Amino acid sequence: MAFFDLPLEQLKTYRPEIRCPADFDAFWQQTLQEAAQHPLNARFDEVKTPLQTLRVFDVTFAGFGGHEIKGWLMVPHNLEGPFPCVVEFIGYGGGRGEPVDHLTYASAGHAHLVMDTRGQGSGWRKGDTPDPVGSGPQHPGFMTRGIETPEAYYYRRVFTDGVRAVQAAQASELVDPQRIAVAGESQGGGIALAVAALSHQVKLLMSDVPFLCHFERAITLTDSIPYVEIANHLRVHRDRWEQVLGTLAYFDGMNFASLCKVPALLSVALMDQTCPPSTVFAAFNHFAGPKEICVYPFNRHEGGQTAQLLQRLKFLQQHW
């Protein structure tokens, strides 16, 4: 795959107009207030694993609507807590998997809470959290589930789950509640960006090749999954373009970035057709806080992989 998006010099200054709904703040304030009516009920049940250097806890907490959300919490076995904590969100279609899938942060001396994504976990790694909410007609996948209105849209529930995951991490006596970072790749990076803007408890953001940014350009620039799900939906529902964009504006990473002021580390791959580089730079260039971005010119959606993971650990070390 050759370069297909704007040249890097243009990407560095690409800052499209933000179309943030007038009631954006009120919408999310109301959403989180409704979630707060449900007791968090965070539980941490220690489980036995073959891992000798880590302690592992099966996590359960109440997310959007009081729905039960699963996760893992891992901490170093022979160190004194409380620990700074990385709350991580998963890429599209994946679930929390098994504890052995998540060794790095706890091995480096951090607590690590991995949130299962509701309704996902059958695409490439298993999950354990259902989404009990239905929707109107949708294209297969998650991108158009409830897309008729912001109130019904799937990612309203997921982003709220993410904010509640941060609260669940803080509820553990093993976690330093003043040192919480959020992280993720692709969909996970998009969720992390939203949660960093919505939760005042988040102190650091690490978002790699983030999905869910600059929807209007992404839908018309790439025909790769998952953005193509929206285009396919509109191919059938030909009269819904403005309605769909109106819903997506409440979930656009560009809008969250303009409100987020915590230190942030992002990454982008210039041959990425899943999350086109201009959509990532649109969020990065609007980001309101201290920021840095790692650019991988010849990578696709895999991004920097281990090289970027090392950058994350360096970023955490610098700030903690």
From TrEMBL:
Active-site annotation: S186, D272, H301
Organism domain of life: Bacteria
InterPro entries referenced in this protein's UniProt entry, alphabetically: AB_hydrolase_fold, AXE1_dom, CE7
Protein's recorded name: Acetylxylan esterase
MF terms (GO), sorted A to Z: acetylxylan esterase activity
Record GO biological process: polysaccharide metabolic process
Highest classification ranks of the organism: Bacteria, Thermotogati, Deinococcota, Deinococci, Deinococcales
Keywords linked to the UniProt accession: Hydrolase
Domain Acetyl xylan esterase: 1-318
Region (Disordered): 120-142
Residues the entry annotates as binding substrate: Y92
EC number: 3.1.1.72
